[in-house]
Request: fold
Amino acid sequence: MEVFQSKVLKLPGTDYKEVYGKARLIFLQIKKKSKRKPYVRSAYFKKEKVFLDYYWEHLHSKNERDRWRRLKYYSCALDLIKNSKMEPFTTQHPNRRKESLHRFFGRTQLGEEFVVQISQNKNSNKKYFLSVFPK
Reply:
């Protein structure tokens, strides 16, 4: 299993609101660049778009402590999506047959490991950033 070494630090903060504000600011900067859905281009998927809007829906389905834990890795996850060319662990989505799940493994600048999940629709070939969490 290959692990991507991120050049970005985790988002600093001692509570959810502090980290959420910083993560949301990063997201809004990306959103400004696009007229429709916010996205980043992925090195692994040959510079294809990976849409970011599903992440926020998934995040709000978690409790506040889990949201805080996941949001701390948001900047590292975006760095991994943009720059990683390493092979992910790919499986079929357990609930949806028409989707594949790609799990990328990364390490922050300080050595903390995390996992990024990207969902790919097999029919339309669209990719969605679903989740990031510590390993």
